[in-house]
Amino acid sequence: MSKLDGVYIFHLRRPTTDAEHEIIRQIPGTVDTRRGRDPRIQAPLNAGWLVAQVAGELALAVAAVASPAGGFEPRLPADAWGSWKAELEARGEVAETVDGEPFLSSWLKPFQQEAIAFIAERKAGVIWASGGSGKTPVAVVAALCATFRTTDRSVGAILAVTRGGARDQWAEEAARFSRLDVWRWKPTSARRKKDRTLAQYLDDCGAKRQRPFVVAGHEQLVEIEDEVCDVLRPGVLILDEVHESKAPKRADYISDSDGQLQKRRVVNQSSAAFKITTAPSVVWRIATTATPIYHRAWDLWGQLSLVEPYAWSETVNRFRFRYCGPEEGEYGYKFDGLSNVAELRQRLSFSTLQIPYQVSHGSLPPKRRRITTVPVEQQKQPGDGSTGEIKKLLREIGKADKAQQTKLVTELREKVTELRIQAACLAKRGVVVDHVIAEVKRHGELVSPESDIRRKGKCIVMVGRVAHVEIFAKLLTNDRRGFGMVAANYDDLRVFVAHGEISGEEREKTRKAFMADPGPAVFVATYQSSGASINLHDCDYMALAQLPVTPGELDQIEARVHRLAMKREVLIEYFVAERTIDQRLKAILLDKLPSVEAIMGTETAASGLVDTLKDIAGRPERMSRLLASISEDFDSIDLED
Questions:
Q1: Among the four 315, 337, 488, 595, which has the fewest Cβ within 10 Å?
Q2: What is d(CA 25, CA 149) in angstroms, rounded to the nearest whole number?
C-alpha cells in the first residue's frame, strides 16, 4: 500500500477487534494496521468515504484523519477546464487549430473538455465511452496537462499504449493534436536499420528541449517493459483500450521447502503493464475503453488496478468477493453476478468518467441499419472447404461412444460453430457483392433532398477470415474465375484489402489510402485487423457479410464508421443466410437492434445488450444462452454440399 499515490489515514484510539478487522479488510484496497501505539486504517481515495461510514457503524474511535484530497468527495472546481485550458495555451504544446477550428476552444466538444479536466485534477482516471466518441484527443490533451521538466525528461515524458494494429494511427493523431515529435515504438520484427532508436529519439527531444511522446502496442509490453522503466522512464502513462491488458493473473503463489507461500510473477501482457504503471517515474495514469466489462464484472479489477495500483486490492480475489456476487458451488466459488452495487458505483465515481452514448454521438449524422435475409435459393456453396470440415467433425462425434461424445462435443463445439458462421458468410457472397455494387453506384447522389452533401460511393465489407477477404476482393474487381457466379459490376471501382497476414504498417497505409480516396471505393477487411481504435468514418455503407457473435464485437464494428469525425449518414447492413446459424445469431443479437439508432440513456450499438453495471447482472446468463444456442445439436443445420 505504500506505493499508493495519496491515501486517507484514519488514526484510531485503539486497535480493531478481530471482528472489526475482518469487516475492514473486506473493503478492497484498505489496510488495517493493528500493531503499535498508532493503530490506523489506510484507505484509497475512492474508499475514504466508505471507511468513514463503516467506522461510524462500528463505533470505532477515530482520533484524526489525514486527508490528501481535502474531503471524502473531491469534486471538480467550478471552472476546472478554464484553468487547465489557460495553462495548456501558455505551455504551447497543444495544437492551435485542428481542421481549421481553434482546437481547445471549439474543436473539442464540452464533454471532452470535462473529461480532460476530470483526469487533470486527479492525475488518474478511466474514461468509459463508446467507440468513436473522441477518446484519443482527450487522452492526449490530458497527458499534456502534466508538468514537464526539461532538466529531467522522466518528469512528464509520455508513453501511450494502444492496440498494435492502431499504433501508427494513434501516433498520427497524437501528432495532430499536439506540437510534439511523436515516436512509434515498432516491434522488433518491423524495425529497419534506418529507423531511429529510442535513445536517438530521446537525444533529439533533449536537443529540442521537447517532451518525449512515445506510442507502443499492448502486445509489445512484455518485450519492452525493461526499456520503458530503465530508459524512457515515463511520467505519464496512457492505456488506450485498457481492457487489452486486463488479465487478472499476474502472479503465482508457490510453496517453498519450509511450507511458506512465495509470490512468483507470471510474465504476461497484464503483468508487464502493471510493472510499468507502478514504476517509480509514473505519476499520471490515464485509461480509456469502450468495453469496461467484457465477460464478467471482475474484468473491472484488471483495468482499475492499472490506473489506481493497490487501490482495489493487490489481487482480484478481494474485489470478486466484495463486488462480484460470490456463490459457493460444488467445485468452489463462482463470481458471475454483482454485489454491493451502490458501493461499487460510488467508488467508481472517483475513478471513472462515463460519457453517455447520447452525449458523445447525439449530434452525429444518423446511423441506419438494415437486416437482409438471403433465401436458400440465392445462396452459393461456400467453396472454401468449411462444409466438408464441419461434416468430418460431425462424423467423428457420431462414431464415438456416448461417454466420448460428451467430451468431443465440448472440445469441438467452438470449432464447429466458427466453421458454420464462416460457411454462412461465403454462402451470401453473391447477394452481398450485388448490394455493395448497388451502393457504389449511388456515388454522387445527394444524401437527402435538404442536404448539399453528396455520397461518395465508399463502402466497407467486413468478414472473419483472411481467405474470405481475398474472395470478396476478387468478386468486386470482376475476377470471378472459379466462383461459378455472375455479379453486378462497376468498372471504375477501387478495392482496398486489410487482414492479419498484412503487416500493421501496410494496413495503415491501406486504411489511409481508402480514407483519402474520393470514391467510389470498397474496403474489404477482417474484424480483427480493423477493429477497436481504427477510423473508417469516411464511408457511406458497411456490409457485415459475417455476423458478429457478441454485443461487444457488434459495438466495436459499428463504431468504426459511426464516429465524431463523420460528415454524412451511414447505412450498416447485416446479411442473414436463411436456414444457417445466422438465424440464431439474428434472434439473439440483431432482433434487438432498432432500425434507426435510438439515442436514449446509456445505450450503445447493441441497445438492450449494453455492458454497463446496470445491465451486467443478467449478462452471463444471456451469453451462456447465446453460446448454447449456436452450438447445440450439431446436426440441426442444413448445409448441403
A1: 595
A2: 40
